[in-house]
């Protein structure tokens, strides 16, 4: 689904403010460790800040909003869980590309025997996106042969990207304004180009599943926060507090 400009301006402003905070948080973490690269994040060039929404007083209002309920129920059905959420930001002029992959490829990398159903990625734009600033390109199932399977991926040295496709099809670019949602299932191959412009390219990316996605021992792989049950709100913010949970879940890709 491509939903241009559906995020209200006041919500978009909030997401931009929260993004600024979490970029500073990511830089501070790298400073504390004395590194310039951590996982898929490369300081000043590309950031992935994962599963920190419980550190915010406001992000839950978007993640579990009526807008996201409508989007996720249309794609997944009446039962929905928050599976993963992250900021994906490309720095100005030097923002790195992101290689062809399936989001489920990152799950399979950590659990080769996984048999999970496709989950939903909601690529929410905080800026106008185009080919110059590194928008997302998707490869439809009909051209990628991915409707019912997770491909094997290899890790790229230097970037730490997982790569699931090396063919010549460039994919279809999403050219949409700020406040848009590009939604696709986790078996869809996608990539993004470099940011060659003078401004950041910012995206917020919550991901949802129709059922908990678990490890072989039965524990949730990252998050499994109830959102909708039988089409009705199941999320309880009063119980969704940081002190009720253990360490932050690890990254699974983007």
Written overview of the protein:
The chain is an alpha+beta fold. The chain has one domain: q2cbj1_9rhob like domain (Jelly Rolls). 21% of the residues lie in helices and 26% in strands. Strands 1, 4, 5, 7, 12, 14, 15 and 16 form an eight-stranded antiparallel sheet that branches. The protein starts with a strand and ends in a 21-residue tail after the last strand. The relative contact order is 0.25.
The largest pleated sheet is described as: 8 strands, antiparallel
The CATH architecture would be: Sandwich
Treating each run of at least 4 consecutive H or I residues as one helix, how many helices? 5
Kindly report the average pLDDT value.
Answer: 92
Q: Could you name the CATH homologous superfamily? A: q2cbj1_9rhob like domain
What is the number of independent domains? Answer: 1
Would you kindly provide a brief summary of this structure?
The chain is of the alpha+beta class and 254 residues long.
Task: Walk me through the topology.
Layout: E1 2-3, H1 9-33, E2 37-38, E3 41-42, E4 46-50, H2 59-63, H3 66-76, E5 80-90, E6 98-101, H4 103-110, E7 120-125, E8 136-139, H5 141-144, E9 154-155, E10 162-163, E11 172-173, E12 181-185, E13 189-192, E14 201-209, E15 225-229, E16 232-233
Antiparallel strand pairs: 1-12, 2-3, 4-5, 5-14, 5-15, 6-13, 7-12, 7-14, 8-11, 8-13, 9-10, 15-16
């Amino acid at each position: 689904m491509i939903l241009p400009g559906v995020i209200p301006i006041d919500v978009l402003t909030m997401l931009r403010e929260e993004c600024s905070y979490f970029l500073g948080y990511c830089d501070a973490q790298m400073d504390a460790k004395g590194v310039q690269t951590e996982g898929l994040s490369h300081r000043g060039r590309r950031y992935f800040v994962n599963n920190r929404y419980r550190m915010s007083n406001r992000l839950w209002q978007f993640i579990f909003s009526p807008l996201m309920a409508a989007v996720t129920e249309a794609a997944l059905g009446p039962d929905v869980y928050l599976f993963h959420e992250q900021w994906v930001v490309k720095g100005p002029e030097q923002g790195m590309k992101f290689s062809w992959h399936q989001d489920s490829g990152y799950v399979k990398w950590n659990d080769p025997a996984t048999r999970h159903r496709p989950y939903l990625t909601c690529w929410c734009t905080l800026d106008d996106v185009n080919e110059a600033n590194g928008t997302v390109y998707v490869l439809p199932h009909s051209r990628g042969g991915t409707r019912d399977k997770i491909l094997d991926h290899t890790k790229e040295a230097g970037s730490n990207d997982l790569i699931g496709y090396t063919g010549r099809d460039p994919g279809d670019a999403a050219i949409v304004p700020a406040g848009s949602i590009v939604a696709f299932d986790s078996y869809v191959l996608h990539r993004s180009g470099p940011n060659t412009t003078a401004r950041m390219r910012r995206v917020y990316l919550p991901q949802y599943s129709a059922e908990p996605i678990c490890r072989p021992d039965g524990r949730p792989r990252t998050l499994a926060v109830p959102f909708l049950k039988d089409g009705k709100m199941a999320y309880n913010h009063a119980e969704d507090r940081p002190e009720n949970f253990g360490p932050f879940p690890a990254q699974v890709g983007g």
